[in-house]
Amino acid sequence: MRTLSPENQAALAARRLLPRDFLWIVARDRASGDPVSVGFWSDIASVTALVLDPDTGVSVLRPFYGAGGLIQISDIPAISTVTVQRVTITMSQLDEQVEAAVRLYDIKQARVEIFNGLLDPDSRKLVAPAEPIFVGFIDGVNIITPPENEDGGVTLTCVSHTQELARSNPATRSHEDQKLRDAGDFFFVDAAVTGDWIHHWGQAQGQTAPKKKGLFGWGGFLGFL
Questions:
Q1: Domain boundaries, the chain
Q2: Which residues are registered as beta bridge partners of 40?
Q3: What DSSP line would sit under 133-166, residue for residue?
Q4: CB count, 10 Å around CB of 36?
């Protein structure tokens, strides 16, 4: 169940609403592999705004670019199940920051966070830190370079982090896979051949002639050995 801050509840009750979306992408530097973060929001000027960190719930200050870079975000339904959600984000391909985010950096499976905040109509400031409404990963990128007089853009297809619950474990029951975790772990050193081993338990296998006792095998009957 989603909860709202008292400030947002008061703004909703007074119908003083200026909703804005905030997008945060954690891409990777193609050369070093280091994480590179970039933010956009659905307004004109670039701002530094407070948002609630989805992992910790603590307010953090982040920079967000405006200038129309973030055009549209598809509807995000509020659900209580582990269903994998899909969100489509449309951005302008003419924006320099958008170009850098999708071309300069590696955004394959990059982390995506979407926040929603309410602005005060008079001060144009957030009445409370923007709240996260979607956390996931970029599943696909479509960059459309249109011919003259036609529309283009950048479309990001994102899936929610619940996708990780359906991901299978690639680890195998092998010595080589175990060494990737710990080079000194030899627990599976014979895993590939133990299925062919034959173990004998108890007496040795094979038949042996029984040893007779006494006369005719009667065990010393009438005193005869």
A1: 6-166
A2: 23, 65
A3: EEEEEEEEEEEE---TTS--EEEEEEEEGGGGGG
A4: 18
Closest among 22, 60, 18 to 42, alpha carbons compared: 22
The SS3 assignment for 214 reads coil
Q: Identify the CA nearest to 75 among candidates 63, 90, 64, 54.
A: 90
**Average pLDDT for 161-167:** 62
Q: Is the pLDDT of residue 212 over 60?
A: no
Residues 6 or more apart whose CB falls under 8 angstroms from that of 181 comprise: none
- What token pair was written down for 82? 């582990």
At 20, list the tokens. 């804005």
Cα distance between residue 201 and residue 198, in whole Å: 10
| pLDDT of 51 | 95
* Cβ atoms 79, 108 nearer than 8 A: no
pLDDT in tens, 104-158: 899 888 999 999 988 888 888 888 899 999 999 998 888 887 777 777 788 999 9
